[in-house]
Amino acid sequence: MTPQLAQPVIDVHVILRTGDKVLLSQRGGEYGHGRWHLPSGKLDEGEPLTTGAARELFEEVGVSVDPDRLRLVHTVHHKQNSTVSRIGFFFEAAEWIGEPFNREPDKCLAVEWHPVHDLPEDIIEYPRAGLLAHLGGLGGTLTEHGWS
Q1: CB neighbours of 98 closer than 8 A, spacing ≥ 6?
Q2: Which residues touch 20 (CB under 8 Å, ≥6 apart)?
Q3: Where are the alpha helices (H) located in 8-93, listed in sequence order?
Q4: Rounded distance, CA 127 to CA 13, Å?
Q5: pLDDT, tens digit (0-9, with 9 covering 90-100), for 39-88
Q6: Which residues pair with 14 in a beta bridge?
Q7: Is 111:36 a contact under the CB 8 Å cutoff?
């Protein structure tokens, strides 16, 4: 019998950083309601990772970034539950066009800059793992989160 191949959800996260501050959005939907998160979303079928990350960034916070200027800084393999896993690619954007604002008020309560040394405690665990691994310079490029 051939083993079943994994079919993880592929997510793209963008760390938008200016000086010692990083942009976070506060979730308004059912998942993680009221908690903080990075601008992110699911990769569309047939879409390159950097294109998906740039698209999600624009859709959520109205900022345009050249996909070629995004830098992959970390990857998280996250076990969501017994049947769903996710692979999150975390990109950093150092240059962009526009001022971030909440483009999805039906899904997002707020968009705010937070000092990297004083982040909110209630960042959703999965994006928190990738963000802290990058900010802390932990030396690795992969975090396995939620696996026992």
Answers
A1: 62, 63, 64
A2: 115, 116, 117
A3: 49-61
A4: 8
A5: 999 999 999 999 999 999 999 999 999 999 999 999 999 999 999 999 99
A6: 91
A7: no
